[in-house]
Automatic annotation (TrEMBL), chains A, B:
Record domain Cyclic nucleotide-binding: where: 30-116
Originating species: Pedobacter cryoconitis
A Pfam match: cNMP_binding
Entry superkingdom: Bacteria
Residue intervals passing through the bilayer: none
Protein name in UniProt: CRP-like cAMP-binding protein
Length: 187, 187
DNA sequence: TCCTTAGTGTGATAAATATCACTTGATAAT
DNA sequence: ATTATCAAGTGATATTTATCACACTAAGGA
């Protein structure tokens, strides 16, 4: 189960067996079933999650109760309510299974210990964070320059696998359009 | 001039005088005038910039020539075309002065040397990147949950200083609405 | 001083998108 | 087998926003 983690990390920094063994001591595996919550709004955010298999949605709920998908997360991705995680405050979003999901859990304390104990891992997380930022910026640019149809096409192109696994109503929520509008875009 | 940098870094990690002297050797100060370009689309991105004084806009131009403000950057902020900077590829955006601006330039090579030579600085950049990512995610949530008027009000609230310094047409571009629509929102 | 340009506001109209209401087909639960 | 539930499509209409056209003001350059 941790093998996927090693492969994932070694795409960025090489690890010796000893180093990887050290890394592993910081993670706890856990399994969740479809519809279960990994993070609930208003509760503490204990972990950042590395996803081994499955699919999660990060959901923001506004004052009127409307839910929007902030992001999806699947195999080899990291996910959490990062503001709450890094500042150790209460969750403002929820993280929920779209499919049965296996994750490796990393507590904030272990995250800090891991970075302090092995500079390579701080380097790894820096790289991840940089490219996470770039991906968000791309999504903003997509918003700024494209209409609903174009954004949908870009999503199809970028994550073709996602479309097979997620109901269109959730894709609509991620794209920031109503499900009816999305339904009328396809042809 | 580097004092602002020290203060900025020490909000996250403390530095000895020797350490800060080491840090300084990696930065080069530069001055630009209003309308000058720090980065031009299609050219190499030599630096990440720390802004001492002034105001910049990061601009994306689409195929039809329409320009959109991806972000503004003012005192104490870092800015660059980060995808191009980190991957050492050509710029897909341009970075231009809205006001006369003084910056400290950090080349990619010096960025790596700085992180490798002083773990505190890798820690610093990790923290910056994490919160940069969170800020982008907030902007996405603002898009997903709010209409033009609400997004404008959120911007006014979050960066009241910006509104004094930037023409409304640029704010409109940043918010992803036409300047005419923005003009009709205020009352 | 005169002229140009940038910034802004506003009316009229078109286009994009949301909302509400209803239907259908597929799947899951009992 | 029957009934709920979910996902998806679609028509009618309302709302939001873009686009085009024009006017006005202030600031800067020749």
């Amino acid at each position: 189960m941790h093998d996927k983690l090693r492969e994932h990390i070694e795409k960025i920094v090489p690890l010796s067996d000893d180093e990887f063994a050290f890394v592993c001591t910081h993670f706890t595996p856990k399994k969740f079933k479809k519809h279960q919550f990994l993070i609930q709004e208003g509760e503490a955010v204990k972990y950042s999650y590395f996803i081994i298999t499955g699919l999660l949605k990060l959901v923001h709920t506004d004052e009127t109760g409307k839910q929007r998908i902030v992001s999806f997360a699947m195999e080899d991705w990291w996910e959490s309510d990062y503001y709450a995680f890094y500042t150790q405050t209460l969750a403002t979003m929820s993280l929920e299974c779209v499919e049965n999901t296996e994750v490796l859990c990393l507590s904030f304390e272990d995250y800090r210990k891991l970075c302090d104990g092995l500079q390579k891992m701080e380097r790894f997380f820096l790289e991840k964070s940089n490219f996470g930022f770039i991906a968000s910026q791309r999504r903003i640019i997509s918003w700024l320059t494209s209409n609903a149809k174009e954004r949908y096409e870009q999503l199809l192109k970028q994550y073709p696998a996602l479309i097979q696994r997620v109901p269109k109503s959730l894709l609509a929520s991620y794209l920031g359009v109503s499900r009816e509008t999305l339904s009328r875009l396809s042809p």
